[in-house]
Amino acid sequence: MTRSSTPLRTTAAAVACTTALALLTGCGSGGAGGSAGGSGVIHVLVYGDAGNTVEKRIVDTFNKTSKVRAVLDTIPGADYQTKLQTVITTPQAPDVFFDWGGGSIAPFVKAGLLMPLDDMIAKDPALKADFLPSVFNTAVIDGKSYGIPMRGTQPVLLFDNKKVLADAGLTPPTTWDQLLSEVHALKAKGTTPIALGGGDQWPTLMWFEYLFDRVAGPGLFQRAVGGDKQAWADPASLKALGMLKQLVDAGAFGTTFDSVKFTDGGSPALLAKGKAAFELMGSWEYATQQTADPDFAKDQLGYSAFPSVPGGQGDPNDLVGNTNNFYSVRSTTKYPDAVAQFLKLMYSDDFVKAQLAIGNLPTTTNTPDFLAGSANPAYSKYQYDLVKQAPSFQLSWDQAYPPAAMTPMHQTVQRFLDGQLDANGFVRAMQALPTP
Amino acid sequence: MTRSPAPGPAGLTRPGLLWALPATAFFAAFALVPLALVAVLSFTTWNGVGAPRAAGLTNWTALLHDPVMLKSLWLSALLTLLGVLLQTPISLLLGVWAAGHQRNRAILSAIYFVPLLLSATAVSVLWRALLDPNFGLPAQAPWLFGDGNLLGSRDGAIGVLAFVGAWQWTPLHTLIYQGSARAVPPVLYQAAAIDGAGRARQFWHVTLPQLRTTMVTSTVLMVVGGLTTFDTVLILTQGGPGTETTISAYYMYQQGFKNFDFGGASAIALVLVLVATVVSLAMVRLSGYDAMRAGAEGI
Description:
Chain A is of the alpha/beta class.
């Protein structure tokens, strides 16, 4: 099949897409403005949330010295990826945009839509050297760099309710066996051992990602995401799957986890109200609890790394999560030099301080100098050291795979946990996923 | 178009074709053309980036062997059926009762209609919070809800979707039945009373037959609403657990805008168009909807 297509088909697709987009989103919802033509403007598209305060400031800083003006566009909520994908091929595509690296940009790279940043880095090595390598490499595809880290890193940690643990005479587990025995002890006391927002599906995936890495080491997933379907049927993969099942069968998550979500505050409330002892969650759990229950976040929210698995290939210091967010650059941007200047701000002191102040943890090499000014210095330092020492930092699988794999992957994990799929069914479903 | 239409019997002119032009143009631009484009897209592979690539029958053969597609059609039908079975008796009884003229009924009726004023999104968010197993109603009434895993089990999730749909739409149908019940000529009830019919018999032998065409209208609305349900599924279950509540409309959205498989989503869309056409033709035939004009001239 050739890549060329008749003009009719292209036009047809464009019209259908535009119509669908208009119907679904309502026309003119703000969004990205046009960057076509020599208008002297670059558009910066970011995820619309509380983090925008820093991005507004960065844009203002940039505009003070630059002839080319930067305009910040935001897309609110969880629809970011959907809307980005629909706008990226149009003349309204942004010059610079927020993403998660890895599979989230792989289809764009394949379609030739992104600019490799290696030339920019050659002119200004700090664009690469000033960031932690484990983080920077997430946006390297086929040996070329396609993203500069922005915002912060978000490793997944095992959070706990200090009071619940203390009342049961327990401490955060450091090994798998200790976790299992604590699960039994907590269950005996009538506490749900682990809060799980199974209704969102992705929180369950985090458990499997960690177990998989601890048992098999990072290499096996790299094989799987690289297209080696046999990786999922590897004994290590099956062993990790068995351990997840063991946890479910032990009643670690209770019986109603599929009716509970993280996104509507359900599972965090279980932890904060003492109905559950643990929750495995990205580092944003802290900010979530701080908003919902500030006293709990301050006094009773404990955190530790995922337990080690004796006999596993994976280093206990390995991390899983969202390594960082990235700025990628559209290959057709009219002002690559201005974009390069803009990206330099991502490792500036001002940027690091501003991110820390809103609770994000940037991953520039100079971040430690400013940790004292963060929202919670001890927590920020703990995270930073974890990320820095991690031999491997695995990007969340649903971001490492292409967007098309996300829903089937989530459903597969959920159905396995519900007992609708056995190990073989799980392996077959994972093998059927599209790889980058 | 210079031919002036002949004057009608009451001095009215027959409407010319010209009057239908704006509507026809809109219908063509926003329904027919997109439909044709969707048909073209269903024979391509397209992830929204770059140009679509011709894929022959790939999407269609995949769809034929897709267990989720068949299940989603069955689920749509099931939810529609549950909707009709739940809502018709309740809204019929409430509507007839509310057709009375006492003051308290007017106030109560007004309260019944509140759910109708809320958007489906608000309704879904509300019920999602109310049905939380740990902090919602199930935690307060374990004797009724068991462990409260409503949205995490197949039967529970389908039940919740049917219930929330009924909670939101029963008022509309009550309103329709109320209006229709008020239009029943009082003389029929007087005659029935003289013949010695009690309230139950009056309802059975006078009210129900008089509401026949209303029932058809109401059922058509319920079926159309049931088949196009989307928002409640999106917010309450996201098609889960697993794919247990993935109805066709949600499946199409998921394939297109979550998995970026616009070719596959287009194929699903065409199947939906086909099914909807067949269903609506069947309903017109079986319900005698097309004969309604005659019904209106009856009494």
